[in-house]
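Suppose you are handed only these lines of text.
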Amino acid sequence: MRYCSTRGKTELCSAAETIIQGPAPDGGLFVPAQAVTLPDLEKLAGASYRERASAVLESFLGGFSAPEIGRFTRSAYGEGARFSHPAVAPLHKAGDDLYFLELWHGPTGAFKDMALQLLPHLLRGAAAKTGEKAVLAVLTATSGDTGKAALEGFRDVPGTRVLVFYPERGVSEVQRRQMVTQEGENVSVAAVRGNFDEAQSGVKEIFADRAARRRLAARGYRLTSANSINWGRLAPQVAYYVSAYLDLRRGGVIGPGEEINFVVPTGNFGNILACFYARRAGLPVHRLICASNTNNVLTGFIRTGVYDRNRPLTPTSSPSMDILLSSNLERLLFELSGHDSFRVRRWMEELGTSGRYRVDTDTARAVGELFWADYAGEEETAAAIRGTYREAGYLIDPHTAVARAVYDKYRAATRDPAKAVIVATASPFKFNRSVARALWGEEQVLGRSEFDLLELLSSTTGLEVPPALAGLEHKPVRHESVIDRAEMKEFVLRFLA
Ligand SMILES: *Cc1c(COP(=O)(O)O)cnc(C)c1O
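From them, the structure of the protein bound to pyridoxal-5'-phosphate can be written out as follows.
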């Protein structure tokens, strides 16, 4: 299997080279150059999460052998791995035709662990394969969850360094605490004055800065990315869609080949794109329902074919989706336009210059046939948390609640009877202030810290605080830097001195 860039100006690469590079040197993103097909699903129904992930990755990471992939998945999802649930990504039934796919049982309490527990093993495997001698410097912009997951995944992994930039405002107190208390000898964290889009574009600029990369190369470092612009992040995410489907098959909830819907709370379009690739490779998925918060650029795009980021970014209770530039959409456009890198380049140029582009009608129609999109405002999100708890006794976080609210709109609009899986992307304890406010009202949260609320939420619901979040309050702060966007490059060069 070879991989090509969405911008068409990079030579085809092996899986190993693709993963080490992160984004493609021409500014595009790597995707498989040929069609990928999943193995026989019926044979995997009885398999463990680790075995399912191995089978999926053998398809999506052609070039790595089965024993190599087996080693990666054993470290990430096998016995002794860091997921606190034996099923790794369990389904929770919350209604006749409705399930939640819990992707938050990893060490940081959000779905980013699903891929970032595997990526370090994959990167080291890739470096061994390509004979890469440089130390891999993983550069990451985060809206809150990726950063911590990357730090936990890579901490003290030999031959790597991790640098994380998060927006100074816009992450929850728990998220911030998780990052500034990070341990490990090879890690560094800085807050950037600005929002996620600014932190992300700062990172992209460093990647594109040839002089900076040359200086780092001379010091023995090679930059790579843990963001979902790296194919090594996306491929492991395909596995949980397949696994959710297989759980429904195993339970007899669906018949062979029966199509289901997935509802995905979306920001950078990475999670839902993995679902798209699963479907393309043969997973019986009917509709991909794209749920946005108030920053609903994607809703507009999926409905009209016009992407327009010319609006202010609004901070919401689902901060990991407070994004106006959904990087991975570029991959979808490339796929749905028939690998037409000429058109993709033109759209991305327009996006760069005017913040807006319109895709052609064929591409827009292809998007609209597969995807359905809507968004949930802050009130609707809170109501979804409250409603799901009262009706199903199930506690969800604000990101998951956005998806829940959009799913209800989808059902009302289409009456589609297909079974649906809502992707639960974070533990409700990770965003406890918003969850507590939704359940009990503002008076109950006023004046209480997130750490008090963590306890309160646990004692009133009878749910245990996930190990990932317990004791956070008492950990010493190790990373205090707050920098301007313009200082990011200097920060990198200083850390990698
Ligand atoms: C990152 C994240 C999202 C958005 O995922 P994308 O891949 O960026 O679309 C949603 N919810 C949570 C909790 C996240 O951490």
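What can we learn from it? Residues 231-250 form the longest helix (20 residues). The chain has a mean pLDDT of 95.
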